[in-house]
Each structure stands twice: as structure tokens, then as C-alpha cells.
Write a structure and sequence with these properties.
The chain is an alpha/beta fold. It is built from 10 helices and 20 strands. The chain folds into 2 domains: 316 residues, TIM Barrel, CATH 3.20.20; 119 residues, Sandwich (Jelly Rolls). The longest helix has 20 residues. It binds beta-L-fucopyranose (FUL). The site of beta-L-fucopyranose (FUL) has 5 residues, from loops.
Length: 484
């Protein structure tokens, strides 16, 4: 290469470097989620399968002395569980590999209180394996619930049990391929069989060495997301009713949370200035109980009731976790699967047609050219509009070009840059002028607003309060069926 062309190349390189430095990138100076947490949040819907000896005793919490000989789900078909989940668009299924009663659905080599001493497949069965295979067949991610509280184990409450628990954790995270989520339950009731002692065992806040458990998980399965009252990846939202707060911050201070002993209201709301990002997971059973009881066959949540929960969980920046408990034959009851699949059909139908696509958008300011207003309705979650840092109360006006009729509004923030909006209001322009139709607090991954059906040609979003410069990645307008 001639000397002058080399000089020219060097000149071009330094100019582009200078331009890159001069580019005004939107600030990531906030607490932000990991890529795995973002992926988890985007799943929106996760399902639970609660199953153990308890199912055969028609109880909720097994005491730990249930006889494995009673455990015989002769018709069990894990593919029916996975297929039900698939039909409802669920991306991940979580199985109770061991509930509080201590019975293991896999032939653990560390206890006799397991499937290997049951009549199921003459003691040769492994339901964790069947579950994992079924999930793989239907393209569903695998999650595992492993109860730290064990009412069967003689050493529960002592150091020896911690070693036992670590061994079991290692077993299920080593022998069954990729595990996407591990679910650590905070429940600790005290009473139990405990190897025949039949007494109450109260544990202190420091009994479980959580950091050691987490290390085992992340060493064996680096991408596995850990759920508990205080994360570290996914958090409980303080109730088992399937909804998070109307104000819901993914940010929270972990040092204010203790597994099994946290303030439910704090979990349900989070904190604007929280120092950790924990995805909120709203768990709920499709029936009153977590385990199957035929007496509850007429109390299964209806599709409309689950739709309502979807708005109060996914629509408030959470993830919805619905439990579908198999009966004692090993199958999910028809009413449960039908209602669950029907619920998802209603949601898909409601959000099929985004009426905001193709509209023109104007904003009161923008951070820079790259974060332009047109990013708000490009249907790409990664691109977004950001206000100027001098604009504390920015406004977005969406011009629909002609009158459109809608009753649902969906708004998302680019959470990779943190959660910012703390208060906003929506107005629409109708023949009678501008009218306020909704106001709310947080947005996060997704905020869904249900309003009365209205016909309007323009919609205005006014951000009234924001923790840092406001940014919005998508806005959608939809017309859902009147019933939902
Ligand atoms: C609770 C447990 O006690 C219930 O049985 C159920 O497993 C639920 C998901 O978590 O804490």
C-alpha cells in the first residue's frame, strides 16, 4: 500500500473514532437487569406442576411421614403436562421435584423417601426425567422447585441437613440437562415428622447458607435463574394470588429481604431507588389449593379470571406463574387445561392487532437523533425514544391519522436501561377535544391499561414523574372483546 493511502486510512479511522466519542448514547447509569433476566421477563407466562405423595392423601402440606407405597400415578403422562403448557404458549414449566414433605420425584441416592420405594413403575420410575424429556419434546424450558424445608428428614434444622440439601441440589442440577430456573420456597412451618421425632423445628434467618446454595446453582448451571423471596434473579411478589402492585419496581433493596421473612408489601411494590434488579414473579394456582383435590373441581379459575390476573401481573411489569396440579392418576384435569388454554387464546386475540402501527409520533424533546420518536411504534422492543435530559415532563403525541376505536393501551420502557417512569397520564383527542382516559404510576417491561372503548384520532402520553430521563420503547393500542 502506498504511503499516502495509508495516511488517508489512518485519518478516516481517527475521524470515525472522534464521531463515536461525540455520539450521545443514552445513559445506562441505573440499576439494570442482566440479559438472562430480560429474557426471563419476556417469557411473560410460566407454569407450575405441583405433585407429590400429598396428592394421594388429599392434603396440601405433607407432614413427611406419608407412605411412598401410596404413590402410584398409574396414568401419568408428562407429555400431557408439556402439551397443555405448549398449547397455552407457556415457555417454561417448573416441577416440584421435592415439596415440604421431602418425597423425591427422582430416585435420589441420598434418601429412601422417594419414588424408588413407590409402586410407580415398580420403583424404577423417575418423574423428573419424564418431565424433562417431555419439556424437551415440546420445546419448553425446564424449571425445578426444590423445597429447602423438609419435614421428612431427621436432621432438618441441623448442619447435616444442609449437606443433604446441597447434595440433592447438585443431583438435580447435574443429571437432567439444562435447568433454566430453580425455585427456592420460603415456607417453613415448624412441625414435621423429622425421621420420627415428630416435633416442631424452628430455624433462624441464618440457617440456610444461601450464598453457598447460589454458588452451587451458578457453577453447575451458569444461566439458571434463581427464584426466592430475595432473588437473586427472580423475586416473590409477597402474595400467592397472582398479582403485583399497581406500582411495581423491579428494583428493590435485597438487604431488606429475608427468605421466608420479608415484608410482603415491600415485595409487592419494590423501591424506586432499590440497588438490585429482581424480576417480579406472580405465583398463583389455577385452583384454591396448590395440590389436586377433586372437591375443588368446580372451583377452577375461569378463563376470564386468569385474563384478569394477566393484566394484574404481566400488565404491571411482572411474570405470571400459574400452577396446574395433576390428579392422583398423574394427569392435569380437563377443566384446568381447557380454561388455561382458553385464557391464552383471549389474550392473543386481544393483542393481535396493534392500531398504533403506521401512526406518526411527535415528542416534546429527544435525547439525540438515534432515540427518535418513530422508535415507539416500530414493533422492535430494543429500539426506543428517550427524552432530552432537560425535559422532566416529556409528552408523546401519537397521530393515528384517522379515528380508531380501542380499549387497551400497552406501554413499555427499554428495561435494559433501567426502570424510570414513576407517574404518567393518557389523554385522547376525540370530536369533543382532549380527554384524560387513564393515569398510572410505573411502566417497566410492560404496562397494560384497560379503558372504556373509545374512538380517537390522537393519543397523548404525559410523563409526570420519572426517576431519571424518561424513555419508551413501544406503545400499542388494541381493541379487546368487551367481555374481557
Ligand atoms: C408455598 C408453599 O407452601 C405451597 O405449598 C406452594 O408450593 C407455593 C408455591 O409456595 O410457599
Amino acid at each position: 500500500m502506498k504511503k499516502h493511502s495509508l495516511l488517508f486510512l489512518c485519518f478516516c479511522a481517527s475521524v470515525s473514532q472522534l464521531m463515536a466519542v461525540g455520539k450521545k448514547e443514552f445513559l445506562k447509569n441505573k440499576v439494570i437487569p442482566t440479559e438472562n433476566q430480560i429474557r426471563y421477563q419476556q417469557q411473560e407466562l410460566v407454569a407450575f406442576v405441583h405433585f407429590t405423595t400429598t396428592t394421594f392423601y388429599n392434603k396440601e402440606w405433607g407432614n413427611g411421614d406419608e407412605d411412598p407405597k401410596r404413590f402410584n400415578p398409574y396414568n401419568l403422562n408428562a407429555e400431557q403436562w408439556a402439551q397443555t403448557a405448549k398449547n397455552a404458549g407457556v415457555k417454561e414449566l417448573i416441577l416440584t421435584t421435592k415439596h415440604h414433605d421431602g418425597f423425591c420425584l427422582w430416585p435420589s441416592k441420598y434418601t429412601e423417601h422417594s419414588i424408588k420405594n413407590s409402586p410407580y413403575k415398580n420403583g424404577k420410575g423417575d418423574i423428573v426425567r419424564e418431565f424433562v424429556d417431555a419439556c424437551h419434546k415440546y420445546g419448553i424450558k425446564v424449571g425445578m422447585y426444590l423445597s429447602p424445608w423438609d419435614r421428612n428428614h431427621k436432621d432438618y434444622g441441623r448442619k447435616e441437613y444442609i449437606d443433604y440439601f446441597k447434595n440433592q441440589l447438585t443431583e438435580i442440577l447435574t443429571n437432567y440437562g439444562k435447568v433454566s430456573e430453580i425455585w427456592f420456597d420460603g415456607a417453613n412451618g415448624g412441625d414435621g415428622y423429622y425421621g420420627g421425632a415428630r416435633e416442631k423445628r424452628i430455624i433462624g434467618n441464618d440457617y440456610y447458607p444461601w450464598a453457598e446454595f447460589h454458588k452451587i446453582v451458578k457453577t453447575l448451571q451458569p444461566d439458571c435463574q434463581i427464584f426466592s423471596d430475595n432473588g437473586p434473579d427472580i423475586r416473590w411478589v409477597g402474595n400467592e394470588k397472582g398479582y403485583c402492585g399497581e406500582t411495581f419496581w423491579s428494583t428493590i433493596n435485597r438487604n431488606k429481604l429475608r427468605v421466608g421473612n420479608s415484608d410482603p408489601t415491600y415485595l409487592n411494590i419494590g423501591e424506586t431507588t432499590g440497588s438490585s434488579w429482581l424480576v417480579g414473579q406472580c405465583d398463583v394456582s389455577i385452583r384454591p389449593g396448590w395440590f389436586f383435590h377433586s372437591s375443588e373441581n368446580n372451583q377452577v379459575r375461569t378463563p376470564s379470571q386468569i385474563v384478569d390476573l394477566y393484566y394484574k401481573s404481566v400488565g404491571r411489569n411482572g411474570v405470571l406463574l400459574i400452577n396446574l396440579p395433576p390428579d392422583s392418576t398423574g394427569l392435569i384435569h380437563k377443566t384446568d387445561s381447557t380454561n388455561f388454554v382458553e385464557f391464552k387464546k383471549i389474550i392473543d386475540e386481544s393483542f393481535k392487532n396493534n392500531l398504533a402501527l403506521g401512526s406518526t409520533i411527535k415528542t416534546s424533546s429527544k435525547w439525540s437523533k438515534k432515540y427518535r420518536s418513530a422508535n415507539i411504534n416500530d414493533n422492535i422492543t430494543e429500539t426506543f425514544w428517550a427524552a432530552s435530559d432537560k425535559d422532566a415532563q416529556p409528552e408523546i403525541v401519537i397521530d393515528l391519522k384517522k379515528e380508531k376505536t380501542f380499549n387497551r393501551i400497552s406501554i413499555s420502557e427499554p428495561i435494559a436501561y433501567g426502570q424510570r417512569v414513576a407517574e404518567f397520564q393518557i389523554e385522547v383527542q376525540t370530536k369533543d377535544g382532549w380527554q384524560k382516559v387513564a393515569s398510572a404510576t410505573t411502566i417497566g417491561y410492560k404496562r397494560l391499561l384497560r379503558i372504556n372503548k373509545i374512538s380517537a384520532s390522537k393519543i397523548k402520553i404525559k410523563v409526570k414523574k420519572s426517576a431519571g430521563t424518561a424513555a419508551i420503547s413501544e406503545v400499542g393500542l388494541f381493541l379487546a372483546s368487551e367481555k374481557e
